[in-house]
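Sample entry was shown:

___
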Amino acid sequence: MCVNESDCRRDGAEILTDDGTGGDDEYSAVASLIIAERDSLRRFVTGLMGRDVHAAEDVLQETLLRALQRVGRLDVHERPVRMWLFRVARNLVVDHRRRDRAVPVGISAADFAGTALEYSGDHAGLVADRSVLLAALDALPPAHREAVVRVHVMDQTGADAAADMGVPRGTVKSRTHHGVRALRAELARRGVNGVAA
């Protein structure tokens, strides 16, 4: 274990044992190095994540967990643990941002609150609303219609829809976005109240 912070800041090879071989002591020493980097890693991740303290803490915990799971496989003689930790943390931040950005934007039930498409308990009105929506969907180009139906009606993920359609995921996102815009414009043209074009 590290007695003081200056012992923990060394590159790791000196902390193992006098002869650099280790064993169980090596495992403990590497784990100590990883834990010793916690505060500097927290500052690094918080700087990258901005004000989202909870997400930064999640990234920090995931980084430390991955490091502790790989203690026996980390080679502190060739590369300092600190470099590896910071690279893993940075990659996790990038993954977190990509995951947040990948949320599809489109039609939800809240978009139709207070409109003619909101279910009022009248089945005749529901049938009429469906026929208007189906006619508006038929007016879309086939590629956009397929993307909108797969993502918003069949509730497929973008990746699943892309695999089924045989196109890249970004193409599905683009077609869904443009399809929803065209669908809103078509519903507004047909006189559906409360739908912005």
Q: What stands out?
A: Residues 134 and 166 are 25 Å apart (CA to CA). The chain is about 65% helix and 0% strand. Residues 1-22 have pLDDT under 50 and may be disordered.
